[in-house]
Design a protein that fits this description.
This protein is of the alpha+beta class. It has one domain (12-107): Orthogonal Bundle (Arc Repressor Mutant, subunit A), CATH 1.10.10.10. Helix 1 (9-20) packs across helix 5 and helix 3 packs across helix 4 (52-64). A hairpin with a 2-residue loop joins strand 2 (68-73) and strand 3 (76-81). The longest helix is centred in the last third of the chain and has 25 residues, at 83-107. The protein is 61% helix and 13% strand. Strands 1-3-2 form a three-stranded antiparallel sheet. GO terms for molecular function: DNA binding; DNA-binding transcription factor activity.
Length: 111
């Protein structure tokens, strides 16, 4: 039995997005994509100190996680942030973080 299912959906969602963004390269790729309307994968390779195959793998992870959408036409790939999903993720992060902060207000600190 998967113990993850025992937790509320909001916590599961938060954990999934946190895991998706747990690698610095994926955060850097998101920053690059945020500065452009669309981005060809080759441009990311020129900006970041990563091999083409590494960038492609991270883009695949981000796409599978729903934070990036993209198309592949021949040897050209074009990616952009899925802003609807990104904003949903951002809202989930805020809710969870603010919920945890509330406990600090109520209980103070033990250390």
């Amino acid at each position: 039995m998967n113990k993850k299912s025992e937790f509320p959906e909001s916590i599961q969602s938060f954990a999934s997005y946190a895991k998706l963004l747990s690698h610095p390269a994926r955060i850097a790729i998101m920053e690059v994509l945020a500065t452009r309307q669309t981005c060809v994968c080759g441009e990311i390779v020129e900006i970041l100190p990563l091999a083409q195959s590494t960038v492609s793998q991270h883009l695949k992870e981000l796409k599978e996680g729903g934070l990036v959408k993209g198309t592949v036409e021949g040897t050209s790939s074009c990616y952009c942030i899925d802003w609807e999903n990104f904003n949903q993720m951002s809202d989930e992060f805020s809710k969870c973080i603010n919920g945890i902060k509330e406990y600090q207000k109520e209980n103070g600190s033990c250390c």
